[in-house]
Amino acid sequence: xxxxxxxxxxxxxxxxxxxxxxxxxxxxxxxxxxxxxxxxxxxxxxxxxxxxxxxxxxxxxxxxxxxxxxxxxxxxxxxxxxxxxxxxxxxxxxxxxxxxxxxxxxxxxxxxxxxxxxxxxxxxxxxxxxxxxxxxxxxxxxxxxxxxx
Length: 149
Hints:
Structural class: mainly alpha
Oligomer: single chain
Shape: extended
Number of helices: 6
């Protein structure tokens, strides 16, 4: 089981809340307070605060029978607190489905990385991982393009 502070995938949140993934994505469009971290390929990682807000929205919509506009009004009036935006200290390395941290690799030499704070180092590593994903996509597209010519 993941720690309480671990980020959750859309699949995990969907299972926990018993709400289909497409509904969670739809709620993101209706409630800008839900701000998952988005990674390469559009993968979403929900912060614990996002999951708690989704849980409150689910109860209001499904159990208390509020409309989406009603829940939006409650959020706007501050009767439901929305989570703060993610800060660099909040960014943890995502965990795999089995709860193990995913290794992203060191983008810089150890000496260069030692001068950075842990949170900044983690943020840099997340960006590097995203760039690697994009490089892979571009490489595949380039290969397809080469095959056509």
